[in-house]
Design brief:
This protein is mainly alpha-helical and 112 residues long. It is 47% helix and 0% strand. Helix 1 packs antiparallel against helix 3 and helix 3 packs antiparallel against helix 4.
Length: 112
Amino acid sequence: MIQHRPYNNKIDVYSFGIVLWELITGNLPFQNMSGVQMVSAVLNGVRPEVPPNIPPTLAYIMTHCWDSNPDVRPPFSEIIQLLEVAQEVVLRTVGTAKFRGCGCIALSPTLD
């Protein structure tokens, strides 16, 4: 989209990978860059640093989603399967999910 070329859902796959990184780290990517610097960096293949302590399945999903070659990025049907595998790994190794930046406030639906 940035280069005004035709696009498909692979740009959404890239965005999903970035959002997954944000959820895992609790940070904003490229936060020390201006918008122009960020666009230039992304077009030159710069990606956020993958935390070393996350399950490899989640690291794989993120990096596969933001691959520089859109044709290599997985379809969402594959991402769902990968997330299901990651869920099993996280539940087996971590037990309870812990999110950085989470206020740990229990949310319950209100009935009107």
